[in-house]
Amino acid sequence: MLRLAFTLVLTALPALAADAPPVTVMQPAEYAQSVGQFDYAAHTIKLERLNELAESGGVVIDLRSREAYDAGHYKGAKWLGPDVTAEALAAIAPDKGTSLLFYCSNSLMRTRMISLTDIALPQAAQLGYANVFKLERIWDEAGHTRADDLALFTAEKAN
């Protein structure tokens, strides 16, 4: 029985792959050029602006681990994790005119050298989303985050 199920799965794989849209793969030099041309300053917003855009229909996207998201996240945030793909973004925001508001662990506290939001922004822009923003870090130079600000990102728990 297990052998039959395995054979059926292997037989179905080519059909599933045929239905998937082709993925455009960027070469490292193309990616470096794209990132180098991306205007991060114009796409970095303060917490107050994220709140305003979220209230007016922007989609808040959590790039943290699933465990961190489940433990608590920004009210109404959609979990994407670090895997930013055309399909995942289309499922979250089919309208490419929608404001996408990204945050990750590094937005909330000092965690890593390169923020996932810095990686996600140019990818989303390359996929045709014009209104992409990342949350400016809410921690200070000493690595402290105001409790009131951090509470916004633990207010809602996953079901």
User: Globular, elongated, flat, extended or rod-shaped: what is the shape?
Assistant: globular
User: N-to-C SSE series?
Assistant: HHEHEHEHEHHEH
Major beta sheet summary: 5 strands, parallel
User: pLDDT average, as an integer?
Assistant: 83
- Derived from helix and strand composition plus strand pairing, the structural class reads alpha/beta
Q: Which regions contain 5 or more consecutive residues with pLDDT less than 50? A: 4-13
Major beta sheet, strand line-up = 1-5-4-2-3
Residue share in helix:
40-55%
Gap between N and C termini: 35 Å
The total count of helices amounts to: 8
Query: Which percent range describes the beta-strand content?
Result: 5-15%
Spatial extent as radius of gyration? 18 Å
Number of E-type strands: 5
List key phrases describing it.
159 residues, alpha/beta, 5-stranded parallel beta sheet, globular
Mind explaining what this structure looks like?
With about 160 residues, the chain is of the alpha/beta class. The chain has eight helices and five strands. A five-stranded parallel beta sheet has the order 1-5-4-2-3. Helix 4 links the parallel strand 2 (about 60) and strand 3 (about 80). The longest helix is centred in the first third of the chain and has 18 residues, at about 1-20. The model is unreliable at about 5-15 (pLDDT under 50).
In short:
The chain is an alpha/beta fold and 159 residues long. Helices cover 44% and strands 10% of the residues. The radius of gyration is 18 Å and the shape is globular.
Strands, helices and their partners?
Blueprint lengths: L1 H18 L8 H10 L6 E2 L1 H9 L3 E4 L3 H6 L6 E2 L6 H7 L7 E4 L1 H4 L7 H11 L5 E4 L11 H5 L8
Parallel strand pairs: 1-5, 2-3, 2-4, 4-5
